[in-house]
């Protein structure tokens, strides 16, 4: 994956070099279950291309389209697997991101615990940013 400076677990998943079961795969994104879920259902949608964080996205049609597609995939999966449930979609911003490969958290509530809920609450410029808010920032 272009731009990856060290072994990236999500790049390995994108190259199919792990045993991770995929929930969705297309030319732009992959989706799979989070290995440490924080909610009733917790999926990650990642771009195939290595993009480190939300800070590497720009206000341009390609980035807006990618994030829109990531959100569409996440919504489709949760609507399929956890219908009629409350959802939360968003990204951790540096320095609070755990993996330096862009990934959308797709959560079907309830959260497993109050502590885990706090990790997915918008906290300003370094916290969790909801996908819809990021899309407004990226809209060309």
**In which order are the strands of the major sheet placed?**
1-2-3-5-4-6
Number of strands: 6
Described by strand count, sense and barrel closure, the largest sheet is:
6 strands, antiparallel
Output the CATH class name: Alpha Beta
Average of per-residue pLDDT values: 93
Could you say which overall geometry the principal axes of the C-alpha atoms support? Answer: globular
CATH superfamily: HIT-like
Please report which band the strand proportion falls in: under 5%, 5-15%, 15-25%, 25-35%, 35-45% or over 45%.
25-35%
Low-confidence stretches: 1-5
Helix content: 25-40%
Number of domains: 1
Overall CATH architecture = 2-Layer Sandwich
Q: What is the tally of helical segments?
A: 4
Ends distance: 26 Å
Motif (Histidine triad motif): 101-105
Active site: 105
Domain HIT: 9-120
GO molecular function: adenylylsulfatase activity; nucleotide binding
Would you mind describing this structure in some detail?
It is built from four helices and six strands. The protein has 140 residues and is of the alpha+beta class. It has one domain: HIT-like (HIT family, subunit A, 2-Layer Sandwich), CATH 3.30.428.10. It has a six-stranded antiparallel sheet. β2 and β3 form a beta hairpin. α2 runs antiparallel to α4. This is HIT domain-containing protein. InterPro entries: Histidine_triad_HIT, HIT-like, HIT-like_sf.
């Amino acid at each position: 994956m272009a731009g990856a400076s060290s072994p990236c677990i999500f790049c390995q998943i994108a190259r199919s070099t792990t045993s991770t079961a995929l929930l969705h795969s297309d030319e732009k994104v992959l989706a799979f279950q989070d290995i440490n879920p924080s909610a009733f259902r917790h999926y990650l949608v990642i771009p195939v291309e290595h993009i480190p964080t939300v800070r590497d996205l720009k206000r341009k049609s390609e980035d807006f389209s990618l994030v829109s597609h990531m959100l569409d995939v996440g919504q489709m999966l949760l609507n399929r697997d956890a219908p009629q449930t409350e959802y939360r979609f968003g990204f951790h911003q540096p320095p609070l991101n755990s993996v330096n490969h862009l990934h959308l958290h797709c959560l079907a509530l309830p959260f497993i615990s109050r502590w885990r809920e706090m990790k997915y609450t918008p906290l300003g410029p370094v916290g969790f940013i909801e996908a819809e808010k990021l899309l407004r920032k990226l809209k060309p």
